[in-house]
């Protein structure tokens, strides 16, 4: 799997080739590591490279194939993870100089699930300081550029994640998203990113949330980035599922949900006044709607059950509350992370659930 076209294989294609013995997991890992070494000076997407760990993990996959054992759904697939996730033996700083020299003692649950599925972890990807910003630079690792144009930003905060996948350094990356941190860089780098529903993928072991905590944050989520939607589906099947002190690794097989008979129905959310669309975006959405209708889909205008302005105001309060817990008082800045009264916080959590129920009913 030399640098070049094969560097852009899908996760499903890599795993199938490794299982059939057409290419070894070690060959795949060595090629990807060589590609990072040769090309990443221009982008600076992979800020921590674990060559020794990657080749050791790849050898385990090859041994399983040789024995006729199932190495997992991500057999030999080269992956990276956002630097904020705990990876045993690797640094975790969140781009903060105060955390220099800090090394994780154990994998975050989501990272452990990738490993258990046969993925080969190449290293960690860059992010803005404290995950704060729609760019990707910090005083620990420097700036990550957009792989399509180094003069432009890759976005943030999962900027290194999107850049690494777009540049063909890794096939999948594990990112995180509070208020756009997967979606924005995925869009700006031309890859696919998924922000799962809260609670679907464990986000324990993710800085600056206390890495040894047992409670997931209430609003931000962990999710995959890939070059195609099919790989997001494959990754989600590995990452999703409940967690608990007794078991930190859980592989979930996602089945297609039952569909009522008849044509597929697609809800189209009309443009909210709180987020006006540019003419180019509006035209693209209209074209997508027409294409779906041509394919036999029935489209229906969806009236949001809760005003977008109210959802946005609630979202920013939840973001602020999460920042307040995840960072110490000396780390908060720009007016964010102000502590809230307990009654206000629980009222917002109740409102969060009410919004979820309202949209579920509208979509039904």
- Number of separate helices: 10
| Biggest pleated sheet | 6 strands, mixed
Helix/strand order: HHEHEHEEEEEHEHEEHEHEHH
Helix content: 25-40%
Set out the fold topology:
Blueprint: H1 11-20, H2 25-43, E1 46-49, H3 51-67, E2 78-82, H4 109-116, E3 120-125, E4 137-138, E5 142-143, E6 145-146, E7 149-153, H5 159-166, E8 172-177, H6 183-189, E9 192-193, E10 221-226, H7 229-239, E11 265-269, H8 279-294, E12 298-302, H9 308-326, H10 342-363
Parallel strand pairs: 2-3, 2-8, 11-12
Antiparallel strand pairs: 1-3, 4-5, 6-7, 8-10, 9-10
Helix pairs in contact: 2-3, 5-6, 9-10
Structure explained in plain terms:
The protein is an alpha/beta fold and 364 residues long. It is built from ten helices and twelve strands. A six-stranded mixed β-sheet has the order 1-3-2-8-10-9, sandwiched between helices. It starts with 10 loop residues before the first helix and ends with a helix. 41% of the residues are buried. About 3% of the residues have low confidence.
Short synopsis of the structure:
Helices cover 38% and strands 14% of the residues. It has 10 helices and 12 strands. The longest helix has 22 residues, at 342-363.
What key attributes describe this structure?
364 residues, alpha/beta, 6-stranded mixed β-sheet, two-stranded antiparallel ribbon, 12 strands, 38% helix
